[in-house]
Design brief:
With 83 residues, the chain is mainly α. A hairpin with a 6-residue loop joins strand 2 and strand 3. The protein has one domain (5-82): Multidrug-efflux Transporter Regulator, Chain: A, Domain 2, CATH 1.10.1660. Helix content is 60%, strand content 10%. Strands 1-3-2 form a 3-stranded antiparallel sheet. The two termini are 23 Å apart.
């Protein structure tokens, strides 16, 4: 698996949270296609952005917003150069 992706069990261990809390973060705080992806039945999490969210969501949400924007820009550029 790509080292920038984590399974739900890894995220729960990293954050010390339950499945229910992880679901709440997906529903309330995180964005599909940015923080997590569901290509089929399995859900994968964006390690760099989850780690940034841990560092910044309470103390500096604007920093996390910038990290999301930078990630989106970098990934749009990669998609264009492949196509």
């Amino acid at each position: 698996m790509n080292r920038d992706l984590m399974r739900g069990s890894e995220v729960r261990a990293l954050l010390g949270i339950s499945k229910k809390t992880l679901q709440r973060y997906r529903d309330d705080d995180w964005h599909e296609g940015i923080h997590y992806f569901k290509p089929k039945q399995q859900c994968y999490y964006n390690r760099p952005l989850i780690e940034d969210w841990i560092r910044n969501h309470g103390s500096d949400p604007a920093a996390h917003q910038r990290a999301m924007e930078a990630w989106l820009k970098a990934n749009q550029t990669q998609k264009r150069s492949r196509g």
